[in-house]
Amino acid sequence: MTARWVAAENARPGTTAWRIRGVPPGMIAGYASRTYAAAGDTLSLYVSTDAARFHVEAYRVGYYRGTGARLVWTSTTVPGRVQQPCPRTSDTNMVSCSDWAVSLRVPITRAFVQGDYLFKLVGSGGQRSYIPVTVWDPGSRATYLIKNDVLTWQAWNPYGGYDYYVGSGGCPQDVYPLCSRARVVSFDRPYAFGYNGGKGTGDFLSLELPLVQWAEQHSLDVAYATDLTVVDHPEILTDHRAVFSLGHDECWSLRERRAAVAAHRAGVNLAFFGASAMLRHVRLAPSALGPDREEVDYRDSSADPLDGRGDPLRVTGNTWASPPASWPEDQFVGESYNGFLEPSAPAAALTVSDSRAWIFAGTGLRDGQQVPGVIRSDVDSLEPGLSDPADVQVFAHSPLDAAQAQPRTRIGDTFYSDMTYYTDPEGHAAVWDSGTNNWIPDLALCAAGTVCPAPVIGRITGNLLRVLGSGPGA
User: Fold this and answer.
1) Tens digits of residue pLDDT in 332-391
2) How many CB atoms lie within 10 A of CB 332?
3) Which residues contact 446 (CB under 8 A, 6 or more apart)?
């Protein structure tokens, strides 16, 4: 399912100037007043830098004949300033930079074609970093909806020293989760990390960009949104035939999850390209800058102020499966999170278990055959006895070395990553789960002389999207 506008957009002149190479000197970091915007909106950018002056370049990322992005807008040069330190709220360890002064405002005109954007901050002394923003089209009825997982970007954002996994202070050793972690994280701060040569992009460059570029290279009929777009406008999911959950999409709010469940029952297909999707239970709260700018996850229901007060589905236990929510993700995803391979472990092979299935058409793969270099990081498994749907199919069942991992369950020295698929008996829509956090990175072309699963993974992805784009997957 292709779209002429995507083909025409990617035929426009692109540039590699969007990339940040090496480690830039000095300091520049910023955040936007919104994670997503539409034509007619205005973004406020908050920037702290030791540069005397800086400007902003807005790049729409895509394929663009292999260059990766197109320059859409450039700001005037404005004075730089080092903004005041961002305070920490002592009871929740939330770090917020909401007191920063606005550095400049960006009118989102119709020149900003819907898509994923990197606002590149360029300091006069060579300083460089990004602010990621999604531009959406509320009127789009595209076949596929690409959803950026900004809730998880923020959950893992340690800017100011705290996120849901790290914090400063003395804690007992070998006790997880860390006692000094944040219970609330704020969108009113820059992202402190970014992979693959990025700075300030969260997981986007490593776990999302390869699929965005692959989709636009193939001129797929796509639209763009974020978790917060779905939270604010849950009805948009039924405007599309299939929704893509990207990257490391582990953090879901109740409103977003209910929207996904309702859309699925209405016939919308879902593809979970990363493992551990819908694992962590968060809720949103306003900040001084606007609604849904604070993300809450106590990871301990007894510590959550809402425990015992009102809707138990809003109380943040360690996972969605934890009481009092008690709503396991495998009921919807089709399988459940089962740990992760250590970062030092080599990428494991995908092992085909049902080569006659339509998803392997044209690949030449046979039962038991392995595609090397596919599985890294988090993995999902179909675990007997859990609450997965009754008709789940297993397309790939890949044994992994438990000695190089931290699995939740294992059989001797082995645990598994599964690729699964099922359809809903009411709406007949499908849910597909890759079983690995590395599926999207696998779509990127490899360096010469390395194991490269991209051609096979690309063919499988194409088969999947043809089915999901044709209507309810049953």
Assistant:
1) 999 999 999 999 999 999 999 999 999 999 999 999 999 999 999 999 999 887 888 889
2) 24
3) 452, 454
